[in-house]
Amino acid sequence: MGAGTEGNGTAEKVRMVCSHCGSDEVTRDAWAAWDPQAQQWALRATFDYAFCHRCMTDARIEEVPC
Predict the structure, then answer these.
(1) CB-based burial, 19-52: b 16+ in 10 Å, e otherwise
(2) Which of 10, 28, 29, 52 sits most deeply, having the most CB atoms within 10 A of its CB?
(3) Residue 52 forms beta bridges with which residues?
(4) pLDDT of residue 26
């Protein structure tokens, strides 16, 4: 099973953190597109570039259990 799931089908909660400082103040580049039926922005793609707002530099994001 992939990260964020358990064998019984129940979603396991995770945090996305900076691999350097452990902060969860991280962001990723992404594209959003307007969904006219839902009348809201819908996430279409996430990209590799990540930034840590605590380190104030490029980051590598790690997924850790809550």
Answers:
(1) eeeeeeebeeeeeeeeeeeeeeeeeeeeeeebbb
(2) 52
(3) 26, 57
(4) 98
Q: Quick one: tokens of 18?
A: 């900076």
Q: Where are the domains of the chain?
A: 14-65
Helix, strand, or coil (residue 54): coil
Residues of the chain falling short of pLDDT 50: 1-2
Q: What is the pTM of this model?
A: 0.72
What letter does residue 6 receive in the DSSP assignment?
Answer: -
Q: Under 8 Å CB-to-CB from 47, ≥6 apart: which residues?
A: 28, 29, 30, 31
Q: β-pairing, 26-35 with 40-52? A: antiparallel
pLDDT at 8: 61
